[in-house]
Structure to design on (233 residues):
């Protein structure tokens, strides 16, 4: 019994000692702890204030502003869609006024299309494409591939090949996988061939043939190029 009492007393002393040390720590560090708690609370409050007090309303305003530009785009009036028409803001203005928003990034994509296809200004197109939303399920892969195309047009083939390869891999998780995957995979392979990197090119060609319908135009072309490369080895 005495041993049990002693063991119980030791346990009580240990627990009390822990509580005492904890109280002393809290007492000695009260100010830094309170500051730390205040900082965390401020960060959490700031996050929610930004998300709901600033970001969400700005996205809504951007969505309202882009309505007419999208309408003109659907009407194949890219000039009006980008530059605006009859008082309606165009993609250029929306991209500037709503920087950082998802809508603003989408506006940048269409500005890139305009400068690439209409103005043939590949540097301007590149600048806009690089500010697109690469995570967007609709235009994300296209934007990544477009960046690669513009680098190649500007003579920066190695950078372009890297971006085209990135687009081919990104396509695997997109809705347009079966089209954009082989399309950008083949383009990336051709870019690496220009760089005399046959190993990289062959790897991409094999990837296209192993993962996509072999009857597709890109797959048929990939098979021909791959056969030629192997015949040279």
């Amino acid at each position: 019994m005495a041993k049990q009492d002693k063991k119980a007393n030791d346990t009580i002393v240990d627990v009390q000692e822990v509580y005492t040390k904890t109280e002393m720590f809290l007492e000695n560090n009260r100010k830094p702890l309170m500051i730390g708690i205040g900082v965390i609370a401020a960060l959490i409050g700031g996050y929610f204030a930004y998300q709901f007090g600033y970001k969400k309303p700005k996205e809504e305003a951007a969505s309202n502003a882009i309505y007419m530009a999208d309408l003109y785009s659907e009407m194949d009036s890219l000039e009006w869609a980008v530059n605006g028409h009859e008082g309606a803001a165009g993609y250029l203005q929306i991209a500037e006024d709503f920087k950082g928003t998802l809508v603003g990034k989408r506006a940048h994509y269409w500005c890139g299309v305009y400068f690439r296809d209409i103005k043939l200004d590949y540097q301007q197109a590149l600048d806009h494409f690089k500010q697109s939303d690469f995570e967007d399920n609709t235009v994300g892969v296209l934007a990544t591939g477009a960046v690669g195309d513009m680098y190649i047009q500007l003579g920066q083939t190695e950078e372009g090949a890297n971006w085209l390869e990135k687009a081919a891999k990104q396509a695997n998780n997109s809705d347009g996988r079966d089209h954009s995957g082989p399309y950008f995979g083949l383009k990336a392979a051709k870019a690496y061939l220009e760089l005399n990197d046959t190993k990289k090119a062959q790897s991409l060609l094999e990837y296209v043939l192993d993962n996509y319908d072999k009857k597709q135009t890109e797959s048929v072309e990939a098979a021909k190029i791959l056969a030629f490369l192997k015949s040279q080895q």
Notes: Residues 158-233 form one domain. The chain has two domains: 33-133, 158-233. Residues 1-13, 45-54 have pLDDT under 50 and may be disordered.
